[in-house]
Structures are given as structure tokens and as C-alpha cells.
Amino acid sequence: MDDNELKALWQSDETSTKQVNDNELERMLENKSAGILEKIQKIVKIEHYSNIVAAVVLIAYLLYQQIWLYAAIATPIMLLVIFYYKNLYNKVLNISYADNVLEHLKMCYSTLKDFKKRYIIGLCIVVPFSYYLGYEIGFFITQDPTSSPIVQNDTISDNTPIITSESPVNFIITNLITFAISIVIIYFIFDLLYGKKIRAIKKMIDTLQENEE
Amino acid sequence: MPQQKIFKLFIDQHTSIISKICRAYSNDDQEFEDYFQEVTLQLWKSFNTFRGESKASTWVYRIALNVCLSQIRKRKKRIKTTVLEHTQIKDEGNNNEREVQIANLYVAIKKIKETDRALILLYLEDKSYKEIAEIMGLTVSNVGAKINRIKTQLKKLIPYG
User: Fold this and answer.
1) How does residue A69 score in pLDDT terms, banded at 50, 70 and 90?
2) What is the mean pLDDT of residues B131-146?
3) Nearest one of A142, A162, A159, A141 to A150, comparing CA atoms
4) Could you give the angle at the alpha carbon of A35 between the alpha carbons of A34 and A41, nearest 5°?
5) Which tens digits make up the pLDDT trace of B11-50?
6) What is the chain A residue with the closest CA to B6?
7) Which letter does DSSP use for residue B75 in this model?
8) CA atoms B150, B59, A197, B138: torsion sign
9) What is the fold of B1-73?
10) Given an 8 Å threshold on Cβ–Cβ distance, is B67 in contact with A35?
């Protein structure tokens, strides 16, 4: 079959053409997009507003409790997080399906990569913070409850579970191992969710750019 | 005329393009419907921003290809069974020879890499290399080189081609 016959055959295909009536079109336009970009856009939006609420609550709490040092540390960190999310949200919003294919794939790739990276960074902040908080509660309750900047005396009762490790080295090693395992597990979950897609898009970009000047 | 009515006319004019692209990237009827709906939705979302700087068909090709490529799903096992069953049914019924040829062409196209598939679809639609380059974001010379290679590959993949 020569090129013209191939084109003629393709262009004669009417069997694949879908007819859309008014009702069906209306239903299609009412449906929400199932695209990965829209999904990310929604997630980032929810997280962005949650961060704003969390920042206000956290900073207000620290100020109310007069924990000035933590308030001074938390304020710029939360502002940075909010600023980062705002930028990410704008970036996702600005991705246009009307761009040329290579441009669109590059934008998708960069956004998905940022989205995944953000989880990893978040993970590296949230997990150590959780462990620190656990350590803080355990250590100060065990050693000197009155010196804790976070745990209030009235929250400690006789039934409060405490860490009674006799060897701080064992305690640290156990926590480090748990910390490492948690990060690896969560990393693989995110990789499973987005890693494959990111690699597939990267492969498409590389294929398209082959032989490009 | 309400915007949705104008859009309906627009979709009617381009439904063949959208259908062919969605068919080329879908593994079964359900996936075809999903792609078709997503392309229509994205066209609708961008409809107001289309300023006619490029041809309407170029704009439709871009959106349809971008939707299909960025949302492509891997279901290799299902591709084989669904497509072969479809082709066999046509063969058994000794239906219109052209329909069998078209089915075989789709089978061959689906075996090509996703990005190469986009290029060959545009070539089969008789788009110029310049227009293909504009849709894909590539240089004209690269489009030419790639299409020559993909054409040869496609011809080898078409049964009795």
C-alpha cells in the first residue's frame, strides 16, 4: 500500500466517528474532568487552603501559649510553605491543553515532578517533626516535665504513657530506623501513584526531542 | 446564539478528528468514551480563549493529542485481546473489505509508540510537515525524518499491507 492509498484509507474511515447529540454534549460538559492535571489542581488547592488555616491556628496557638521561640521559627516557615503552594497552584492552573504537544508534555512533567518533590520535602519535615514531638513528650515526661515547651503539666497524668528506655542510644537507633522505614514506604507509595506517569511523560519528551536541533 | 449551541456546531464539525485520535489511543470502548469526553470538556474550557491565531483544526488536534498523551493508560493485555477480537469479527463476517483494512490500520497504529502515533495520525490526516511541526512543537526537518521512519514501521505492521 503506498502513502496516498494509506491516507485515503484513513480519511475514508467513518466507522469511528462518534455522533454527539445535544443531551449527550450537555452531560459531557457537566461532568468533571478526570484528567491528572485537574486532580493535582484540586489536591493543591485543598492543601493550599488547609495550610493557610493550619498556619493561622498554629501561630495563634504558639503566641497564645507565649512560646515565642517556636512562634518565631514557625512563622517564616509557614509563610514559605504558603508562598510555595501559591506558586505551585498558579503553575498547575496555567497549564494549557492548547499548547503544542512538546510544550504541554514538558509542563506536565515539570508540574508532576514538583508535585512529587513537594511530598518528599513535606515528608522529610513532617516525619522528623512527628518523631521530635514523640521524643519531646516521652523525654520531658520521663526526665523533667516542667521543662517542656510543648507539653503542659496539666496534660500529664499518672496514666500518660512514657518512654522508659534505659539506653538513649537504643532509643535514637530505634527511632532512626523507624524514621528511615517510614520515609522509604511513603516514598514508594507516592512513586506508585505518580512515578510511573512521570517516567512515561519523560520518555515521550525524550522520544520527541530525538534529533531536534 | 448561546455559547453552547455554537460549541455544538464546532464539535459536529470536528467530531471525526476527535473520534479518530481518541480511537487511536484507546484500548476499548469505555476508554474511547472517556477520552472523547475529556477532549470535549477541555475544548469547551478553552473555547472562549480560542482567538483563531491558528486554524481551528490545528487547535483541536493539539488539545486532543495533549489530552490523550498526558492521560494515556497502559493496558497492554487488553489492547491485544480487544483489537484482535474486533478484527476477527470483521473477518469472520466477511464484511466490507475497507472496514477490515481500516481495523487493521488501527491495530498497526496502536502498536506504534505514543508520540510516533501522534505524528503518523497527523500525516494520515494529510497535514503538511509545517503544520505537524506547529502542532507537535518540533522542527520541520525533524518531523520529516521521524515521519519517514514511522511510515516504514507502519507499513511493516499492517497485515497484508
Assistant:
1) confident
2) 94
3) A141
4) 105
5) 999 999 999 999 999 988 889 999 999 999 999 988 888 8
6) A22
7) -
8) positive
9) Rna Polymerase Sigma Factor; Chain: A (1.10.1740)
10) yes
Which among B11, B63, B136 is the nearest to A25, CB-wise?
A: B11
Place of cell 491543553: A97
Which of the listed ranges A16-20, B24-28, B89-93 does the model predict with the highest average pLDDT? Answer: B24-28
Lookup: cell for B160: 497484508
Shortest Cα distance, chain A CAs vs residue B84, angstroms: 16
For the record, the C-alpha cell of A69 comes out as 521561640
Nearest CA to CA, how far is A1 from chain B (Å)? 6
Q: Taking the domains of chain B in order of start, what are their residue ranges?
A: 1-73
**Nearest chain B residue (CA) to A13:** B102
Q: Residue A9 and residue B101: Cβ atoms within 8 Å?
A: yes
DSSP H helical ranges for A94-146: 101-142
Query: Integer distance in angstroms from the first to the last C-alpha of chain A?
Result: 32
Rounded to the nearest angstrom, the minimum Cα separation between A182 and chain B is 29
Mutate: best of A97, A107, A204, A211, partner B, most B CBs <10 A: A97
pTM (2 d.p.) = 0.78
**ipTM of the complex in this document:** 0.84
Give the residue-averaged pLDDT of A66-89: 88
